[in-house]
Design goal:
- By secondary structure, this protein is an alpha+beta fold.
- The protein has 9 helices and 16 strands.
- It has helices at about 5-20, 25-35, 65-70, 75-85, 110-130, 185-205, 230-240, 275-285, 310-315; strands at about 45, 55-60, 90-95, 140-145, 155-165, 165, 175, 220-225, 250-255, 255-260, 260, 270, 275, 295-300, 325-330, 335-340.
- The strands form 5 sheets. The chain has a 5-stranded antiparallel sheet with strand order 8-3-5-4-14, sandwiched between helices.
Length: about 350
């Protein structure tokens, strides 16, 4: 079986000679993948409780771009996020940056990615605050920032999983949204683009962007979900794994790598051949520098929110401490006030 470590071990020196000015983060990732489970980081000694035989296991590198280290962390990371999800309907929002603006999201990547996430969160809060859509003072969401497409090409985009509602201004009530609609995507995309453009001078990137690039529309997509657990498993590979895993590598023949992918809406795997140096180049452009976080929480899901998630679940009528009912206000109809009708069991 061909692994990414085998490919890096054989062809990384040639790739470094061709691209001598690689960033430090890229060189660190290459070195870590080459040395992962090779004995360079030492080993752990385990003893079998049945037979008493000792087993020596080489330690992993722990780099977040190494598929051998990150693939086992997908399920634990997914379960930790599912444990903090709110009940009820959710909405999966997707923001796609046009191709003319994608180069600025790679250098400097930390500032540009932060500006993109902040622009999307601010636009979402502005639209959700309007009473004709949702009306709460504090919505929330979990954003996942992948940087690759199906062919490992540079394709930065943002997935935002948003609970169907938000907190009132006094933080004592829950304002639910419609089950199949949160905010209009046609309005959300241009507002996000305007806020992202406004943040570019502060990041020092406005001079490096072609002015014609701001005329291209941003693509947005909204998909209603019955609950957050139905959509987060599909986002887990983007949030907790790397651009390419070992299971996608079919084989290596001479200098050609066969790597599988799926077309949108199709289930059949396709194995297009790639030159090995081209594969390494595409992999490197998704190596993130220090400080770039792929999974971020905002609004009522942020760690600094003053209202605990347990209290929010009580407001939504899903708390485990007795029966919870709601008294509807007359204006607006979406506002709900929490009333406990019995004592905790």
């Amino acid at each position: 079986m061909t692994t990414l470590r085998d490919i890096f071990t054989a062809f990384a020196p040639e790739s470094l000679e061709r691209y001598p000015t690689l960033p430090t983060a890229h060189r660190q990732a290459i070195s870590a993948i080459q040395r992962c489970q090779s004995g360079h980081y030492g080993y752990s000694l385990y003893q079998c409780q049945r037979c008493g035989e000792k087993h020596r296991v080489n330690r992993s590198c722990g780099n977040r771009h190494c598929p051998q280290c990150q693939q086992p962390t997908t399920q634990p990371g997914l379960q930790s996020h599912l444990a903090t999800q709110l009940p009820g309907p959710h909405c999966l929002l997707t923001f796609t940056v046009p191709e003319t603006l994608r180069p600025c999201l790679r250098s400097p990547q930390r500032l540009a990615s932060h500006a993109l996430v902040q622009a999307a969160a601010t636009a979402l809060q502005r639209l959700a605050h309007a009473e004709r859509f949702v009306g709460p003072d504090l919505p929330g969401g979990t954003g996942v920032l992948p940087t690759w497409g199906r062919h490992l090409q540079s394709h930065p985009h943002l997935h935002d999983m948003v609970p169907g509602g938000g907190l009132s201004k006094d933080r004592t009530g829950w304002w639910p949204s419609r089950a199949n609609f949160f905010v209009p995507v046609k309005a959300l995309a241009p507002i996000s683009r305007a806020l992202f453009q406004k943040a570019m001078p502060h990041a020092g990137l406005l001079a490096h962007i072609d002015p014609q690039g701001w005329t291209r529309p941003w693509t947005g997509h909204s998909q209603a979900q019955p609950h957050g657990a139905s959509a987060f498993p599909s986002l887990a590979p983007s949030g907790f794994t790397v651009a390419i895993s070992n299971r996608r590598l079919v084989g290596l023949l001479d200098r050609t790598v066969t790597c599988t992918y799926r077309k949108g809406g199709r289930a059949r795997l396709r194995p297009p051949p790639l030159d090995v140096l081209e594969l390494l180049r595409r992999f490197r452009q998704h190596v993130l520098p220090a400080g770039v976080v792929k999974v971020r929480h905002c609004g009522l899901l942020h760690a600094s929110c003053a209202v605990p998630l347990a209290t929010i679940r009580l407001m939504m009528g899903q708390g485990p401490w007795g029966v919870v009912t709601f008294e509807k206000m007359t204006k607006p109809e979406a506002v709900s006030t929490l009333v406990l009708t019995n004592t905790p069991q």
